[in-house]
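Can't paste images in this forum, so I'm doing it all in text. The chain is below; anyone willing to post the predicted structure tokens underneath?
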Amino acid sequence: MTAATGNASTFRVALIQMRSGRNPAQNRDDAARLIREAKEGGADYVLTPEMTNLMEVDRGRLFGAVAAEEEDASLAAFRDLARALGIYVHVGSLAVKVSPEKAANRSFLIGPHGLIAARYDKIHMFDVDLADGESYRESRNFRPGELAVFADLPWGRLGLSICYDLRFPALYRALAEAGSTFLAIPSAFTRQTGEAHWHVLTRARAIETGCFVFAAAQGGRHENGRETYGHSIVVDPWGGVIAEGGTEPGLIFADIDPAAVTKARARIPSLQHGRRFEMIEPMAEPAHLHLVRSEP
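Text version of the structure:
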């Protein structure tokens, strides 16, 4: 996996790429090992992918494995690890039980003291039928979120999102207008949709908002048979890819200079130029009305 290097004015981001299976304890251990490696590599902020604790489509297996937030062993372990390492650990998402019938796809930003700085529940549910017969109904098992969330890091404001949210640019515009300079998009894109859209969408969100995009991803063929695209990616505010992974589990690093946000937004100040507008339906021409044109 590639790495981008910088200078003393930057902070270092590490994206963890995983291939989560059906065993939450094993997934937790795999993620923890990579978080420790990220710290050894100088990371100040570490992001894991969507569904760090469990990749499961079978409803019975899913609800047999998930727990409520206050009882989730993975979340407790990641909080302890953030405290021990003294870094920001952003758990891209965990499946956590919120009722007997529903789970939440929930992201957790954990600060260096082990406290939860922000929670975000995925707003947009991945309910699609793909061309090769793949079908997903995320809303069957998960309760959608209703709130956009941002949090302040020492280097700037971070807007939180998860995977399918990437296709809804209004969310990212709102986060940027609220002061976000970085966008986290932990994901588990399917191989099919990733090959078609992953790069163009992550770059578009960066360009539209003038933000850095941090997108840690799941990659490869999972225990449940699903295949994800991988290619964890860091995009700069001008839309340039500064670090990218492949399909195998591992780490990518990028040194981030927050000043690049100011420079990009000065060149194209589109966040200042947005205007509210109304949509109207054109009136049909009455049947009896005819246009009369004069002869030249």
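The chain has one domain: 11-273. The CA atoms of residues 173 and 275 lie 12 Å apart.
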